[in-house]
């Protein structure tokens, strides 16, 4: 059975053809035999509500748990809400501790208890360890299924010990060397175990210089460490230095994608866990909030214009040109804001280099302000045959672009310091500033000069 | 030497203190002994030009190659441009083939030849294999450093063969089983090798059901496969089914981050490879283009307003309220656009479900249109004591939100089909539409009703 990059597409196509023909048998075979759980999850995420519903009923009870893992939180909740305790137990039976803990964290406390009660003591203890840490920390992300060895045995003993396992935990690339009190003192990579002389002791060849994760470290810090050090797995320690679990790269890939997606979704007032195929009413309700917030800022801008109704009545060209001033400021500001938000997310922007960035942005804002002010002024003069108007709009554009650069740089830094997500609220505040300053400077200058 | 999540921060702090005190020795030690190449790259990326310059001169010639790998393309180019052939040779001496090929792809042809000429025949052939594939394909991403075995030997022979290596290639989790003609027929995981009976043959225990990558598959397809199947590594085959290399998860993590960052940067007319600390003039030049494009659309909107100067002169309230109509359309449209762009990037949105999405978005646009039209109308009536004005703005908002939903859904799908990046051009086109339709519907309706 050969797989290649087009296979997922092929599976999806066959699934859609089967749905069109209502070939229930074939749908069932595709979902439960041909496709891997991640593909089934992808098919569910790519389906409108009714079709998604039908597909889900065709996913076998034992497969459901694995499929749930790959769904976004919103879609997960949709299905979890409707599963009873028995269904949950069947679905979660074969999951790894970290995956199981992920799902449990989305359930009400009573259901969590039911699932825990059904488990063997050792397994339950493991899941409870993971659940004892917040979801977005190393402890919440980790898997407790690790292989530990003692430092004083020989590699030969290790090899024989390993051979007693039927299989090793997924992505096992190292064995952890611990003391009698479970304190982590080293690691032995499987590859070294294979190439070194079996009569040597673990202590002789174990690494001691590697990344250790604090169980309470945030998942974003964990992701940065994995990216920076090209890690495949890393040990997680509690505050006493004891090994409590390990994190593998496949858990971190999701964190990396989510954190990168978070910015683009937040800037439009959306959430990275949103369901692409959420029903119309839920979508309407969610979007309404963001539109309402933006309406407030639009009214603020309008009230600024309202202050200059008299001026506009005399020179209607002002009404024609004023959106240009606001829009140029908005664009320039959002470019600066995006660069800063990304710089902060990547850890490039720190207290010690914000001053340099501010200077750079002010210069860029000023230069682009002067450049485009000249262009707009020339066009305005030609259009309305009014030199004064050209001067006023030029000055207003320079002012607005400099203010936009200033705001775009300092606002995200300030919001971050106040622990407010700059990606979510930054663009709304910025647009308010550039609209208000744009209208105020343009109409204000015009009032002073013409009246 | 213990490492924990705060260590990178600690290294950065110590580096900054050393820079402030101009403690050259300590800077050198930190960059070349204490910090790993990825941390050095992070320090360079987080530094303004002059400081970055100073730091780079302190990075040892042999470390430079590794550090270059972790830099964004813009910063890479900055340093590569100034290195002569001898420096390049020293820096690239110890790199893996895939990493070396990555760097070479950024050099002029003459420099590539010089580096290739300096290499041993076997090594050169490997790099040339990678270079023969486009940079953004599986072949361009792969590493040729694989361990292959034959199917008919026993595990015991494999174990002895492996023991002859001093070390295995990084992240080796499987051995590849090939025929005499290098055709891939299976894989043997290291973990299985450790737990199975050594007298068994490779053929008996090898897997044959796993993901194979076509060397010409796009890197985005590769990334999706890794994410979907939780892969650590995957084999790359040429068109004859021969094993030409393997891709490991650490190469894919970069692709995943870049593709997710691409959307947010493109929507602001920026590039994910942009240097956060690019100098002021380069920044100005780059931003100028985007501002120029947006100025065109702003003038288009202004020309629409210009058509109604007479109406505005009579009813200046129109000038006060018109930005609200345009702004509400822009926000609603950009929400729809963002959901669609992300849905397309994740592979959720396909020809067969666009119709459902369009329906959902039109309903949401209509409902939010009616809701906020009512609110704005009420406020307008109170503010200007004009019932007619309330009716006009309400109707204009409903029209603009419905058009925004329509455009936000169909535009990215259309652009994608024309192979134009929807993240880059989508928001400019969308804003133009919502501005023009907003002003046209509001001022047009007002002209018909009042005049």
From TrEMBL, chains A, B:
Entry GO MF terms: magnesium ion transmembrane transporter activity; metal ion binding
Chief site of localization: membrane
Transmembrane intervals: 288-308, 320-341, 362-384, 390-415, 427-450
Superkingdom as given in the UniProt entry: Bacteria
GO cellular component entries: plasma membrane
Subcellular location per the Swiss-Prot or TrEMBL entry: Cell membrane; Membrane
Recorded coiled-coil stretches: none
Statement: the UniProt record of this protein carries the keyword Membrane: yes
Membrane topology of this protein: Multi-pass membrane protein
Keywords from the named record: CBS domain, Cell membrane, Magnesium, Membrane, Metal-binding, Transmembrane, Transmembrane helix, Transport
Domain CBS intervals: 206-264
InterPro entries listed in its UniProt record: CBS_dom, CBS_dom_sf, Mg_transptr_MgtE_intracell_dom, MgtE_N_sf, MgtE_transporter, SLC41_membr_dom, SLC41_membr_dom_sf
Subunit structure: Homodimer.
NCBIfam families found in the cross-reference section: mgtE (TIGR00400)
Family: Belongs to the SLC41A transporter family.
Main function: Acts as a magnesium transporter.
The protein's name: Magnesium transporter MgtE
Species this chain originates from: Larsenimonas rhizosphaerae
Gene designation: mgtE
């Amino acid at each position: 059975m050969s797989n290649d990059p087009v296979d997922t597409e092929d599976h999806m196509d066959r699934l859609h053809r089967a749905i069109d023909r209502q070939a229930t048998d074939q749908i069932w075979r595709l979902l439960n035999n041909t496709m891997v759980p991640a593909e089934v999850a992808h098919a569910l995420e790519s389906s409108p509500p009714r079709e998604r519903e039908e597909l889900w009923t065709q996913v076998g009870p034992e497969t459901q748990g694995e499929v749930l893992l790959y769904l976004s939180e919103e879609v997960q909740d949709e299905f979890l809400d409707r599963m009873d305790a028995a269904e949950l137990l069947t679905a979660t039976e074969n999951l790894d501790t970290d995956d199981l803990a992920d799902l449990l964290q989305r359930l009400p406390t009573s259901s969590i208890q039911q699932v825990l009660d059904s488990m063997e003591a050792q397994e339950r203890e493991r899941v409870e360890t993971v659940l004892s840490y917040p979801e977005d920390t190393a402890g919440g992300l980790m898997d407790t299924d690790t292989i530990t060895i003692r430092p004083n045995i020989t590699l030969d003993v290790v090899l024989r010990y390993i051979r007693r396992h039927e299989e090793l935990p997924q992505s096992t690339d190292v064995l952890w060397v611990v003391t009698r009190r479970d304190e982590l003192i080293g690691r032995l990579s499987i590859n070294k175990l294979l190439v070194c002389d079996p009569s040597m002791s673990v202590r002789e060849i174990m690494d001691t210089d590697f990344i250790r994760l604090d169980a309470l470290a945030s998942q974003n810090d964990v992701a940065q460490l994995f990216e920076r050090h090209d890690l495949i797995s890393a040990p997680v320690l509690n505050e006493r230095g004891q090994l409590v679990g390990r994190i593998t790269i496949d858990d971190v890939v999701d964190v990396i994608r989510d954190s990168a997606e978070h910015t683009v979704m937040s800037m439009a007032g959306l959430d990275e866990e949103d369901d692409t195929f959420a029903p119309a009413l839920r979508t309407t309700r969610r979007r309404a909030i963001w539109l309402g917030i933006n309406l407030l800022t639009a009214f603020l801008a309008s009230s600024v214009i309202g202050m200059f109704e008299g001026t506009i009545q005399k020179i209607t060209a002002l009404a024609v040109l004023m959106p240009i001033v606001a829009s140029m400021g908005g664009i320039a500001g959002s470019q600066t804001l995006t660069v800063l938000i990304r710089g902060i997310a990547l850890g490039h922007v720190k207290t010690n280099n914000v001053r340099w960035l501010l200077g750079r942005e002010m210069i860029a804002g000023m230069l682009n302000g002067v450049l485009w002010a000249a262009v707009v002024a020339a066009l305005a003069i030609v259009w309305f045959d009014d030199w004064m108007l050209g001067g006023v709009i030029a000055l207003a554009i320079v002012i607005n672009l400099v203010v936009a650069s200033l705001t775009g740089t300092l606002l995200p830094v300030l919001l971050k310091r106040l622990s407010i997500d700059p990606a979510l609220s930054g663009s709304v505040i910025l647009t308010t500033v550039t609209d208000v300053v744009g209208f105020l400077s343009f109409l204000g200058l015009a009032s002073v000069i013409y009246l």
